[in-house]
Amino acid sequence: QVQLVESGGGWVQAGGSLTLSCTASGDIIKINAMGWYRQAPGQQRELVTYITNTNVTKYRDSVKGRFTISGMNAKTTVSLQMNSLKPEDTAIYYCAARDRMTGVFETWGQGTQVTVSS
Known about the structure:
Layout: E1 2-8, E2 10-13, E3 18-26, E4 31-39, E5 46-52, E6 57-59, E7 67-71, E8 77-82, E9 91-99, E10 105-108, E11 112-117
Parallel strand pairs: 2-11
Antiparallel strand pairs: 1-3, 3-8, 4-5, 4-9, 5-6, 7-8, 9-10, 9-11
């Protein structure tokens, strides 16, 4: 089993910055990527970004150039630096880990609220 614990998040004005962190523990050899999803009220959960254990990164178009994911080298902690935040970034952000056998993000953190005011 893999466990994920998130920290960070909070409230910020538009244009501000926040940093999220996620620490994995347990059977971490089973995972080959970690990332962040988010879910806004009334919306479906969407992939924001992920990083693999070979440092390949992927971002959704709306956050490119503003968000940076890092870590994964030790397969324990990844960070998400979020700059130039917009009100539409407001959501609950969930850390997720991808199983190396299934290729599916199937382990989830508890979620952390990010609120961006205009």
